[in-house]
């Protein structure tokens, strides 16, 4: 009795708990679900900021280029943001572990809002690119901050109750982003596509400051600057390869090969440095846990096939099925609603039973099946049929999106919650970058080949600068060319989804090797009464 638990990152003060019945919290009052929901609402606003931004800005880009010029630098508006986000994600996670989650998270929100305000005031394309990089640095801390704080506040066993909320935010961003972006650009001007972040961010700042109570830390060790620099260099090289490969430069060009060599060398040196420093920015020991390594691989593959595939669904809907840009977003509803419903179901069952492996296995199978079904689409596929296929894919995503993060967080110690969350987020992000690049290359090659087969070299030249045609320009072309392009896009998406299904089989196979490790925060047993009681105290005290 009297044995104290080490300081944890989830209370205002260092707390002590004992295994004795006199210190166990009352189950009816300790969890304070209303307080947890208030905290989660504030965190969801911050998550919405990060997810909405790219979708809103993407809709406004044609108008931005029309006013600022700099068409040749257009891709850098997106690339600068993506690079900064990916490179800063693991660093934000480590800073939260070292210095306390709340202060670091608030800093990331402030940095994101500063970048948003500056981007809205940009006077030329160079300024916009630089300010987007600032915005991306803040965005890197938003997602990992939300996930790590949730990992601190809510034991994995209880987290399933709130999965529907997180899935709902993702659906709102995917559907509402283009709609909001178009409305803002048309009625308020493109600068408000950045300024809209300011009131949302202010609400998040006030709410997080008021309702989230986490301890301040002061690490005694030095920050791993060498490791952070090498990791940033390695991630930057990988992202640039996926961004430039096949578009700006040929895949076998000196620039791409040079970036590949630079990335490999930087990451190899990073591993050497991380083995020697006392407080590594990305502790390699977390990968010794079999479940963590497997779920990181699965997360990478989910990002690969999900982001890669979803890039081409709207194009298929607009070009082949004749949907407008707005309707193509609404046509994704079957996938997003299925994802929300399944995520909520899986979360509830996980909370009640503590079982989660079955959901990863079933999710991997459904994603593979969904992609295989989508590969069957052609120019005669109806919207209803494609909607059913997308619902299957969405169900698989719903089983995996939050469950993989839950397993990753349950596989690391509380002191490594930040780097565990950031690692899972980072690998999913890099997987998405690779998926978009590789599927883009497959799609472009197939469209060019099909156009050449149908209308000869003229068709190949029409798509040599990029496989996508503007829908307005396409509508003015002769019926024969429009028909050829529709078949070319259908053929390209067929190959994308077919390759996606083949790659997703790897994730499905990996899911079978996961071990059903008990989730922290489950029912109190004689063997684990102290840890279970302490976890419930942490939830109560944090809110």
From TrEMBL:
Q: Which domain of life is it from?
A: Bacteria
Membrane topology qualifier: Multi-pass membrane protein
Coiled-coil region list: none
Q: What is its main location?
A: membrane
> Which SUPFAM superfamilies does its entry note?
MFS general substrate transporter
Q: Name one GO cellular component term.
A: plasma membrane
Bias type Low complexity, positions: 16-30
Q: Where are the transmembrane segments?
A: 38-61, 73-92, 104-123, 129-150, 162-180, 192-213, 225-244, 250-273, 294-316, 328-346, 358-376, 388-408, 429-447, 496-514
The Swiss-Prot or TrEMBL record describes its family as follows: Belongs to the major facilitator superfamily. TCR/Tet family.
The protein depicted here goes by the name MFS transporter
| Species | Streptomyces angustmyceticus
